[in-house]
Amino acid sequence: MKTIRLKVKPGARTEDLTECADGTWLARVKAQPVDGKANEAVRALLAAHFGLRKAQVTIKSGAAGRMKLVTLGE
Fold first, then answer.
1. SS3 for 34?
2. What is the dihedral of CA 14, 15, 17, 20, to 10 degrees?
3. At a CB cut-off of 8 Å and minimum separation 6, what does 2 contact?
4. How many domains are contained in the chain?
5. DSSP-based three-state secondary structure for 69
6. pLDDT tens, 2-29?
7. How far apart are CA 56 and CA 70, in angstroms?
8. pLDDT tens profile 48-70
9. Taking the alpha carbons of 48, 33, 66, 72 in that order, is the dihedral positive or negative?
10. Is pLDDT at 74 greater than 90 in this prediction?
11. How far apart are CA 53 and CA 44, in angstroms?
12. Does residue 73 sit in helix, strand or coil?
């Protein structure tokens, strides 16, 4: 199991995931931060990038903010 620090930019034109120089990740998603839609888009983006199922991606903290701690695996 791996934990990553993630900054989310909702409402972006394109969806992508990049690793920053300081070890954090930047996720841009098209979904707006309404009713958890952006969080679901982030989970789907991470699962696709790391070759996991969406159920294996868990937002541990920061579900209501832009900075999140996410665990991958299991």
1. coil
2. 40
3. 71, 72, 73
4. 1
5. strand
6. 999 999 999 999 999 999 999 999 999 9
7. 10
8. 999 999 999 999 999 999 999 99
9. negative
10. no
11. 8
12. coil
Q: What is the CATH number of the domain that holds 47?
A: 3.30.1200.10
Domain limits for position 55: 2-72
Identify the residue whose tokens are 């120089």. 21
Q: Which two tokens stand for residue 36?
A: 């958890």
Helices vs. strands in the chain: H and E counts, helices first: 1, 5
Count of C-beta atoms within a 10 Å radius of residue 71: 14
Type of residue numbered 16: D
The DSSP secondary-structure symbol of 13 reads: S
β partners of residue 6: 25, 68
> How much helix, strand and coil, in percent to the nearest 5, is found in the chain?
25, 40, 40
Would you state the pLDDT for residue 65? 94
